[in-house]
Specification:
The chain is of the alpha+beta class. It is built from three helices and six strands, in the order ααββαββββ. It has helices spanning about 10-20, 25, 55-65, and strands spanning about 30-40, 50, 70-80, 80-90, 95-105, 110-120. The chain has a six-stranded mixed sheet, with helices on one face. Strand 3 (about 70-80) and strand 4 (about 80-90) form a beta hairpin. This is Nuclear transport factor 2 family protein. Pfam families: SnoaL_2. InterPro entries: NTF2-like_dom_sf (IPR032710), SnoaL-like (IPR037401).
Length: about 120
Amino acid sequence: MGTAAGSAFDTETLRRAIEGNTGNNLLSLYTDDAEIRIVDRDNQPSHPTVLHGRGQIAELLDDIYSRDMTHKLDQCVVQGDRAAYSESCEYADGTRVLAESMVTLRDGKIADQLIIQAWDE
C-alpha cells in the first residue's frame, strides 16, 4: 500500500478512514462534487442508488458508521487516476457485507465511485 507513483491518493489513508469509527475521515477523501453509484440486490444496475456531492455522501457515511459493525480494507490497487478496492464488513450478529469499489480520482480525491455490494441474508 502507500501512495501510487504520480498520484496523491494514499491507500494507507484510505485504510485508516475505512477502518475508523466515523465516516468523517472517509468523507475527506471525496471531492465536493463527487458522485457515488451503488448497485446491490435492492438497487439493480438499471436503477442504482446515486448520491451527488459531499452532503449526500456524508448522510450515507453517517448511517453506515452509526451501525454496530466493523470495516476492513482487504485490497486496493491504484493506477493513474483510477483505483479499485475491496472492503469487508461484519455486523455484531455475524452478518457479513462485501463491497467492491471502482473509483475515478481527481487531484488525489475520489470524484466518482461505483460500489457493488452483497450481504448475508
